[in-house]
Design a protein that fits this description.
By secondary structure, the protein is mainly alpha-helical. It is built from two helices and two strands, in the order αββα. The chain has one domain. The relative contact order is 0.07.
Length: about 70
């Protein structure tokens, strides 16, 4: 964060641009961890439940025909 605020230089090299990249990467990974990952987990879990329900319906329908 200090690199973002003060535009530091070391031997004439500006580190502000790399500080922006690092901060954006940290923010993106935090958002992905807190929002995307739990959402993906719920979607996979719901898909598994629906797959089981569908499989039961198919097997019951086949059993009734025979």
């Amino acid at each position: 964060v200090p690199m973002l605020l003060h535009h530091p230089t070391l031997a004439g090299v500006y580190y502000h641009s790399i500080a922006i990249i690092i901060a954006a990467g940290l923010a993106t990974s935090t958002i992905m961890t807190l929002v995307f990952l739990p959402s993906a987990y719920v979607l996979v879990e719901n898909f598994a439940l629906e797959s089981r329900r569908l499989w039961r319906r198919v097997t019951l329908a086949r059993g009734e025909r025979n």
